[in-house]
Amino acid sequence: MAPCMCSKISPADSLVLGAVQIMIGIFHVFMWYFLLILYMGQIRGVFGTYEPITYKTGCSLWGIIFIIAGVSIIRATRHPTQGMITCALTTNIFCIIIAIIASVLTTIELSSFNSVSYRNYGQAKLGREVSRVLLVSYPLEFSIALTYSIFGCIDLNRHNEDTLTAVTEEAESAF
Predict the structure, then answer these.
(1) Domain encompassing residue 50
(2) CA angle at 25 for the pair 131 and 109, rounded to the nearest 5°
(3) 3-state secondary structure the chain
(4) 76-131: per-residue pLDDT in tens?
(5) Quick one: how far is CA 3 from the chain centroid?
(6) Region class of 79: left (phi > 0), else alpha (psi between -120 and 50), else beta
(7) 25 in a domain, yes or no?
């Protein structure tokens, strides 16, 4: 069986993936803060205030998970132990799930627009534009987390094989 030529991701690429994940996470947290200020300033009008499902669930605040995943990638790259690789792999799988859920919630939000009072229309329109920008960033986060998860599984498998080979060689040399 021939080994796959692309079965290892370089440490530099892993560091870049981690840094990009951290930047995406920080962007999402800043957008959450922006939406918080935007929607908190609404004036209750005839039709009420605009509070979309992504705002109620804190969807943008989930960017904290992206930051944690990026940090775990960087730590696993610098100290590639089995535990660190497993931690990075687990957080990235969690990021994949969160990116899918956030994309679905944002799509649901953007597909329906209940009328709001004239006073809050500008804030609702701006909030929807922020949601559109965030909707573009979720597939990027998904692809970064999926890429690292695939290569993390390969790296974890390779790490286990190396450990098993070392243990087997030690056992054979003892006899």
Answers:
(1) 31-160
(2) 20
(3) CCCCCCCCCCHHHHHHHHHHHHHHHHHHHHHHHHHHHHHHCCCCCCCCCCCCHHHHHCHHHHHHHHHHHHHHHHHHHHCCCHHHHHHHHHHHHHHHHHHHHHHHHHHHHHHCCCCCCHHHHHHHHHHHHHHHHHHHHHHHHHHHHHHHHHHHHHHHHHHHHHHHHHHHHHHHHHC
(4) 999 888 889 889 999 999 999 999 999 999 998 888 876 666 667 777 788 888 88
(5) 30
(6) beta
(7) no
pTM of the model: 0.81
Number of domains the chain contains: 1
Owner of token pair 């069986």: 1
Q: One-letter amino acid identity for 102?
A: A
Q: Which residues of 7-21 are buried (b: 16+ CB within 10 A; e: fewer)?
A: eebeeeebebbbebb
Structural domain includes residue 70: yes
Tell whether 69 is covered by a domain.
Answer: yes
In a domain, residue 53? The reply is: yes
- What's the rounded Cα separation, in Å, for the pair 88 and 86? 5
